[in-house]
Specification:
- By secondary structure, chain A is of the alpha/beta class.
- Chain A folds into two domains: 88 residues, Beta Barrel (Elongation Factor Tu (Ef-tu), domain 3); 82 residues, Rossmann fold (3-Layer(aba) Sandwich), CATH 3.40.50.80.
- Chain A has four helices and 15 strands.
- By secondary structure, chain B is α/β, with parallel strands linked by helices.
- Chain B has a single domain, classed as Aldolase class I (TIM Barrel).
- In chain B, the strands form four sheets. A seven-stranded parallel sheet of chain B has the order 3-15-14-9-8-7-6, with helices on one face.
- In chain B, strand 7, helix 4 and strand 8 form a beta-alpha-beta unit.
- Classes of the chains: A alpha/beta, B alpha/beta.
- At the A-B interface, strand 13 of A face strand 4, strand 5 and helix 8 of B.
Chain lengths: 242, 305
C-alpha cells in the first residue's frame, strides 16, 4: 500500500450510472488483479474503495457505479483533477491458483476487476472464459473489451433483453477447471453452489480504513476471522462461511 | 528548540501523540508505512478475557465530518494478545505501549488487567468502561460513578502499572464519574470514547449499522471532547488523556490547553494513515507560531488567568 496523488486523465459514462475513470500516476503498489484503491473525496469523511479494472506502469482504470453522494461527486470530476489515493489495497486474485481453463465470472459492478484478471490469466498463458451477468441490455458494459482480449465471452441478462437469458450460473462453461467470481452477494452464493471446482470469490463490505486497522469489515471464515479489506477481498471457496 | 516531551503518570513520552485504541490495531499495518517509534506511544486494540468476533456487518457508516462504528470489541482475547500480538509488536515498536482493556464484569476487567500487568512491554492500562457497542458491559460501567469506581478499585488491586479509566461522553455529569475514578485510585482519565449515534438508510428504512446504533467519532466531535476534557481537568488532579476529533497539530494543542497531558488520535488514522506522524512533524512549527517552548507548559492553559 502507498498513499499517492493520482491525476484524472479520463472520466466517461459507459452506460447510465456506470463510469470509467482513468488515473495517471505510480501504480507500483498494484501487484494483483482484484486489488482496490481507496479514494479521498473533498467533503466526505471516509474514502471510497473501488476495485482496479486494469492497470499498466503509470495508469489505471477504475469502473464505478453511482450509488450515493460520493460516487455521484466522482462522476462530476474532470481530467486534470488530482486525487489522494491509498493504492494497492487487498490481496487480489492469485492467478497461480487458477487453472488452465478458469471461468471468470462477473456480475454488474463486479465485472471490472474480472477484466484485469482475464488479462493476467492470458499473460500467464492460461485460457480464461468470461461469463458476465447484468440485469438488462441497457446495463451491459465491457463486453467488447473482454472479446477484444480474444477470449470466449458469454453475456447474460436477467430479463433476457440481451445475450443469454437468466443468471451467470446458467451460463457456466461446459468445461472449466477453476473459477473466479465477483458480484453481488446473492450471485456469489449462487456461483458457490453451482460451481463444481475450487475457486476464488471477491467480496464487498462497507469499510472504515480499507487497510486492516479498524476491523470494520471482518468476516468469519473456516480459516479464522478475516478482514475483507486486508485479508480479502478475495477468499477461497473452501474457507467461506455464508 | 521546542520541547515536545510530556510525562504521562510517571513515564516520559517523546511527544503527546497517541493513536487511539481500535484505530491502530497492534500497529503492524502502520509500521509498514512509517517507523511508528516516532509516536509518544499507542493504545492497542481493546482486549477482553475471551476472544470476540464482535458485531455483524455493516459495522461502519459515514456521517458529515465523522463516522459511526459498531465493531463490538473484536479481539483475539488476552491470552493470544500476550502470546502472539505483543511478541510481534516488539519487532516494530520499542517503547512502552498502552494496553486497552474492556470487560463485561468487574471480575473480567480485573482478570484481563492482571494478565496484562505481567507484560513488560505494557506501560499503562487504559480501562475502557465506555464502549457503546456491546450489551451488558462496556458503557454500563462508565455511566454511573459507583460502577466506574468499582472497576477502578478492582483493576488497581491487581496491577502496579498506571491505570487510565476511559470514560464515555454519553453521561449527564462527566466530572462526577472522573472524580469517582480518581477517588478509587485511578492514575489518570482518558476521554472521550465515541458518542452514541445512528444513521438510517432511506431505501431500506432500516439503520445502516447491523447493530442499530454505533459510536460517532471524527472531526465533528472535537468541540464536545474539548468541553469534557476541560470539565474533567477542573474536577481531578490526575493527568487526562484527551481525544475526540483530533486531526491536526492545532487540534492537539487545543486539547492540551483544555487540560490534556497527552492526546489520542482516533478516526483520523483511518482516513489518513500518516496523520499521527504528520501531527508530530507539524507540532514544532505550530508551537513556534503560538510562542510555546514546551508542551508541558500549556497543559490546562485555558484554565489559568
Amino acid at each position: 500500500m502507498k498513499q499517492l496523488l493520482y491525476t484524472i486523465t479520463g472520466n466517461r459514462e459507459l452506460v447510465p450510472g456506470v463510469w470509467e475513470m482513468t488515473l495517471g500516476g505510480d501504480t507500483s503498489p498494484i501487484t494483483k488483479p482484484g486489488q482496490f484503491v481507496n479514494i479521498q473525496l473533498d467533503g466526505f469523511f471516509l474514502r471510497r474503495p473501488i476495485s482496479v479494472c486494469d492497470w499498466d506502469r503509470d495508469s489505471l482504470k477504475i469502473i464505478y457505479k453511482v450509488v450515493g453522494k460520493g460516487t455521484a461527486a466522482m462522476s462530476g470530476m474532470q481530467p486534470g483533477q488530482k486525487l489522494d489515493v491509498l493504492s494497492g489495497l487487498g490481496n487480489g486474485f492469485d492467478t497461480a491458483k487458477c487453472g488452465q481453463r478458469t471461468a471468470v465470472i462477473g456480475g454488474g459492478a463486479g465485472v471490472p476487476p474480472m477484466y484485469g484478471l482475464a488479462k493476467a490469466l492470458l499473460g500467464a498463458g492460461k485460457t480464461p472464459i468470461a461469463v458476465l451477468g447484468f440485469n438488462t441490455a441497457g446495463e451491459v458494459f465491457y463486453e467488447e473489451q473482454f472479446r477484444n482480449l480474444g477470449i470466449e465471452t458469454v453475456v447474460t441478462t436477467v430479463d433476457g433483453s440481451y445475450g443469454q437469458k437468466g443468471f451467470v450460473t446458467g451460463a457456466l462453461p461446459r468445461s472449466y477447471d477453476y473459477f473466479c467470481a465477483c458480484g453481488p452477494l446473492p450471485m456469489l452464493k449462487a456461483v458457490y453452489s453451482a460451481t463444481t471446482t475450487s475457486g476464488l470469490l471477491s467480496f464487498e463490505e462497507r469499510m472504515g480504513c480499507g487497510f486492516g486497522a479498524c476491523m470494520g469489515c471482518s468476516c468469519k471464515t473456516k480459516y479464522g476471522n478475516k478482514r475483507i479489506c486486508k485479508d480479502g477481498p478475495v477468499l477461497e471457496k473452501e474457507e467461506i462461511i455464508w | 528548540m521546542v520541547d515536545l516531551r510530556v510525562n504521562l503518570a510517571g513515564i516520559e513520552l517523546d511527544n503527546p501523540v497517541i493513536p487511539a485504541s481500535g484505530t491502530f490495531g497492534y500497529g503492524y499495518e502502520f509500521a509498514e508505512l512509517y517507523d511508528i517509534n516516532c509516536l509518544g506511544t499507542f493504545s492497542f486494540k481493546g482486549t477482553t478475557r475471551e476472544p470476540r468476533f464482535g458485531n455483524p456487518t455493516p459495522r461502519i457508516a459515514e456521517c458529515s465530518a465523522g463516522m459511526l462504528n459498531a465493531v463490538g470489541l473484536q479481539n483475539p482475547g488476552v491470552e493470544r494478545t500476550l502470546s502472539e500480538e505483543l511478541p510481534k509488536l516488539k519487532t516494530c515498536f520499542h517503547k512502552p505501549v498502552m494496553a486497552n482493556v474492556s470487560g463485561f464484569s468487574v471480575e473480567e476487567y480485573a482478570y484481563t488487567c492482571a494478565r496484562l500487568d505481567k507484560a513488560e512491554q505494557v506501560g499503562w492500562l487504559e480501562v475502557n468502561i465506555s464502549c457503546p457497542n456491546v450489551h451488558n458491559g462496556g458503557m454500563s460501567f462508565g455511566v454511573c460513578p459507583e460502577a466506574a469506581a468499582a472497576v477502578t478499585r478492582a483493576v488497581k488491586a491487581v496491577t502496579a502499572k498506571p491505570v487510565f479509566m476511559k470514560l464515555s461522553p454519553n453521561v449527564t455529569d462527566i466530572a462526577s464519574i472522573a472524580k469517582a475514578c480518581q477517588d478509587a485510585g485511578a492514575d489518570g482519565i482518558s476521554l472521550i470514547n465515541t458518542l452514541l449515534g445512528m444513521r438510517i438508510d432511506l431505501k431500506s428504512r432500516k439503520p445502516l449499522l447491523a447493530n442499530g446504533t454505533g459510536g460517532f467519532s471524527g472531526r465533528a466531535v472535537l468541540p464536545v471532547a474539548l468541553r469534557m476534557v476541560y470539565q474533567v481537568y477542573e474536577a481531578v488532579d490526575i493527568p487526562v488523556i484527551g481525544m475526540g476529533g483530533v486531526s491536526s497539530a492545532e487540534d492537539a494543542v487545543e486539547m492540551m490547553l483544555a487540560g490534556a497531558t497527552a492526546v489520542e488520535v482516533g478516526a483520523a488514522n483511518l482516513v489518513n494513515p500518516f496523520v499521527c506522524k504528520e501531527i508530530i512533524d507539524q507540532l514544532p512549527e505550530v508551537m513556534v507560531k503560538y510562542g510555546i517552548h514546551s508542551l508541558k507548559e500549556i497543559i490546562g492553559g485555558a484554565h489559568h488567568g
